[in-house]
Amino acid sequence: MGNVIVNININEGKRFYIKQIQFEGDSLLDSLIYIIPRKLPIAYSDEFINSFESQIYYFYYNSGFPFVNVLRDTIIENDSLLIVKEKVSAGKKIIIKQIKIEGNKQVRDAIFFKEITIKVPSYFNYNQIIQSIQRIYSLRLFKSVNYKIEDDSILVFQVIESPERYLETNIGFTYPYFLNISFLIGHLNIFGNVQNLELITNGLFSWTNSKILLNDRSITLNFRERYFLDMKNLFLNSNIIYNKTGQIGQVEDYGKIEEIGLNAEILRQFSNYFYSAFSILLKNSITIGYEDKRFILTLSQRAVYDDRNSYLDATRGFVSSFSISQAFIQAKFIKFNELYSKYFYSFAFRIRMGQIFGSDIPYSEKFFLGGEGSVRGYLNNSIGETFDNLQPASNHYINGNFEYRWRFSSFFGITFFYDFALVSNEFANLIRSSIYNGYGIGFRFYINFIPIRFDFALNPNSRVLPKDLFIYFSIGQMF
């Protein structure tokens, strides 16, 4: 085999700079002057020109001109300077006098008009049309939403409907102990006004000593009214809840938590990213063999800001939330929860905290950490202070999760992660308490942009492999 030397010669030619930008044409907007760079000359590049001309279209689209056209003329002044002339043909300025819907068979027109933000009569406004399309998509009732202009005055939204009924099955697996299976059946428009009804069943199975046990089980019936009191930004969420949870490998009922309750929440959406909610929860709760059955009334308030670009695999944005709950009748406590998570293209982190104070705190209201969703490398709900042979729990905690997400291709990626938790029953001792660390490596397989997650985790006490290795399988990122 011989060696081959390849020489590549690149002749860049002369570099040109834009000396001046001029506008020509009809119906020139005064606002165009604001998109011209303050400092000229500027290096000529396709990226700059494309961005600059996109802003021209943007100004006209939002000023009533949907048929605007822009042609560029470049004049070479000397060996290095250019004059760019943008010739604008604005077209007809459109006043929207009527809005129509095409393609809807099951969804009533009145629902669309609650989500459409552009009013009649008004000038064509691209921003408001796109916002309307996004709101219509958020109903989850449509595969496709587009628009067109008819007769220079009619705005037509064209939709293709999705099935209103749906069935979902989710499986999560944690080696060596757990298999989580959930089934969800729902209807997106059960009473014709975008009311959402869902029935969710969930089971967490474990196997120890050659026995398969159902450790956790829950049944939840959810009802969501999107237009509570006929207001488009006011939601009513209500739930009937039953759950029973126990310790790993536990056969007897002692220490198992059993609850049945009814929850009602009114949620007000202030923007695409920010909402606040107030809820009332009535429930019967018992820790079998440890605490008698209690009837608890809880009032809660929460506020959430969430501008993530994806719920399953966020690469930008952040989430910040705060909630406060006050319990009455057969329990007396006040509970706080705080969360902040931040997302970058290849890095993400989340910090969660919780505090509970009171003279009568049921065991079931304490915080349970460990395993999937909190600190990988530990058994589920194994982090906390232990007493009376109950599952570990605490009154106060800090939980952090950090992930470096390295995506090799559109199909495959690797994640390195570190989780930690601090727990204590006394708030003053929280920072001084022992730290629980979990760390490991994960693999992501992307199918239709949805990550299938495999995480391999250890903790500082892991000594024997693969016995002490925890493997997690799930759909979507952990946070």
**N-to-C series of helices and strands:** EEHEEEEHEHEEEEEEEEEEEEEEEEEE
Q: What is the count of DSSP helices, taking H or I runs of 4+ residues?
A: 3
Question: What do the pLDDT scores average to?
Answer: 93
Radius of gyration: 29 Å
Major sheet characteristics: 16 strands, antiparallel, barrel
Structural class: mainly beta
Uncertain segments are none
Task: State the distance separating the first and last CA atoms.
Answer: 52 Å
Topology, number of strands: 25
Main-sheet strand order equals: 10-11-12-13-14-15-16-17-18-19-20-21-22-23-24-25
What do these coordinates show?
The chain is mainly beta and 479 residues long. The protein has 3 domains: 17-89, Ubiquitin-like (UB roll), CATH 3.10.20.310; 95-161, Ubiquitin-like (UB roll); 165-475, membrane protein fhac: a member of the omp85/tpsb transporter family (Porin). It is 7% helix and 52% strand. It has helices spanning 46-61, 109-115, 126-137; strands at 17-25, 42-43, 69-76, 81-89, 95-96, 98-102, 122-123, 142-150, 154-161, 165-175, 178-187, 195-208, 211-225, 234-245, 257-269, 274-287, 291-306, 317-329, 332-343, 347-360, 396-407, 412-424, 435-447, 450-458, 470-475. It has a 16-stranded antiparallel barrel. A 4-stranded mixed sheet has the order 2-1-4-3, with helices on one face. The chain starts with 16 loop residues before the first strand and ends with a strand. The mean pLDDT is 93.
